[in-house]
Write a structure and sequence with these properties.
Blueprint lengths: L1 H10 L7 E10 L4 E11 L2 E7 L8 E10 L1 E6 L7 H4 L3 H7 L2 H17 L2 E6 L7 H10 L7 E4 L3 E3 L19 E3 L3 H13 L5 E4 L9 H13 L4 E5 L2 H10 L3 E4 L5 H9 L3 E3 L5 H4 L12 H16 L3 E3 L13 H4 L4 H6 L4 H7 L2 H7 L14 E4 L15 E4 L2 E5 L2
Parallel strand pairs: 1-4, 5-6, 6-7, 8-9, 10-11, 11-12, 12-13, 13-14
Antiparallel strand pairs: 1-2, 2-3, 4-15, 15-16, 16-17
Helix pairs in contact: 4-5, 6-7, 7-8
């Protein structure tokens, strides 16, 4: 079956064509409503209309027995980071040392194709890609050289000295180019400009993975530089103090943020900040050691689920992000990138809001006209045999993918 899908993929057109789709059930992710037996008209890679079905079936893409919705979006992805416990002991620091950027970009091309075939028509690559490996992957996809989702990319992650690693004096630069060490507003402004110069479409900073953390003044320097270039800053935060500094400085999104009491969640909501929470499952936390005792990770998992439950109850803008960094040998990266939905179910996020959080809300964060089946938006469309409004596990069985008006997968 996988061979058949690959042959079909290679035979599909690679340029946007005008098309008509007959959709059995259209899911409107904006509010969780549905429309039955719909005609979706696509021209030049965009949706031009959605209406009740009428007309001939000649030349129509027949999805009349399928549930149809916008393509999925993973807002915390790492295409050029693939950790392999058999080679690097499950330590992504070691991965960056032993694998060149060129090799990681090759891995990223494969991971990107996996993502697209799983139904992820857009991703936000949040860094950890060596020396701009993510930018190279995006360029290849944009130019039609390789298949993959629409990508927004962070380039090199900007961080205080050391980044997310503990270095030694004799090898103090070993964290480069994985991270762009920048301390003080002037260094940070230069780092932002260099990132944008080399192709980053947004900026990611690490706030608080060292004993010292970025101040409000330092974070604001990054925010101002990014905004002056028409983009934004996402802030990796683990501590409450780090989140408070990031909110005060005006970042657009918080990545992770497990230590957020209700007062801080309310601050984020009032500021209009998006939360890309990467709510790891037990298996996700134990990915480096499949034989590990999962109970050792229970407290951390519970902390993420509790924070998501409280953020959801407060109507914070929650965004789906997998933070997947390994590849399922049988199903590929796209399969692993759906794992965090298990935590969303545990946090009692409704099925409709799970779908919104993996389509419309991340598109809003990214500032792209995707993530909705709406006239004028990109024709990023997926379909599956079962209803994800009843059980979002249906997303594992997406068998039709259209991206920018081009059919990438039609396997049912």
């Amino acid at each position: 079956m996988r061979f058949f899908v690959l042959i079909l993929f290679l035979a599909l057109p690679t340029q946007a064509q005008n098309a008509v789709l007959r959709a059995g059930t259209v899911i409107h992710v904006e509010d969780g409503s549905t429309s039955v037996d719909q005609r979706i008209s696509v021209e030049n890679g965009k949706i031009v209309s959605i209406s009740d079905w009428s007309g001939s079936m000649e030349g129509v893409v027949d999805l009349s027995d399928q549930f149809v919705m916008p393509g999925l979006i993973d807002a915390h992805a790492h295409m050029a980071l693939e950790v392999d416990p058999t080679k690097d002991g499950g330590n992504y620091f070691v991965t960056g040392i032993i694998n060149s950027t060129a090799y990681r970009a090759v891995q990223g091309v494969r991971n990107s194709q996996d993502m697209l075939m799983a139904g992820f028509t857009s991703i936000r690559d949040i860094g950890n890609s060596g020396n701009y490996g993510d930018v190279a992957i995006k360029q290849g996809i944009d130019e039609g050289l390789v298949p993959g989702p629409h990508m927004e990319v962070a380039g090199r992650i900007i961080a205080p000295f050391g980044g997310q690693f503990h270095l030694q004096p004799e090898k103090r630069n070993v964290g480069n180019p994985e991270y762009f060490f920048a301390d003080g507003p002037q260094e940070i402004r230069k780092a932002v400009r260099e990132n944008l110069h080399f192709g980053a479409t947004f900026i990611k900073i690490v706030i608080d993975d060292q004993k010292y953390i970025y101040s409000v003044e330092e974070i604001r320097a990054a925010v101002e530089e990014a905004e002056s270039a028409g983009t934004y800053v996402s802030a990796h935060c683990w501590t409450e103090r780090g989140v408070r500094n990031a909110i005060a400085a005006g970042v657009r999104a918080i990545e992770h943020g497990p230590n957020m009491p209700n007062e801080v969640l309310q601050m984020a909501k009032d500021a209009g900040i998006f939360l890309v929470g990467t709510e790891f499952t037990l298996a996700g936390l134990a990915w480096a050691d499949p034989s590990a005792d999962l109970s050792a990770f229970q407290a951390e998992h519970d902390q993420f689920v509790d924070r998501l439950r409280r953020a959801y109850a407060m109507d914070l803008k929650i965004v789906y992000g997998s933070d997947a960094v390994f590849r399922n040998a049988e199903h590929g990266r796209g399969y692993e990138s759906l794992d965090v939905l298990n935590s969303w179910r545990e946090a009692e996020v409704s099925n409709a809001d799970q779908l919104k959080g993996i389509t419309q809300t991340p598109a809003e964060l990214m500032g792209i006209k995707r993530g909705q089946l709406t006239s004028g938006y990109a024709a990023d469309i997926v379909a599956m045999p079962d209803n994800p409004l009843e059980d979002t596990n249906a997303l594992y069985h997406i068998d039709f993918v259209m991206q920018n008006g081009v059919v990438k997968k039609h396997g049912h």
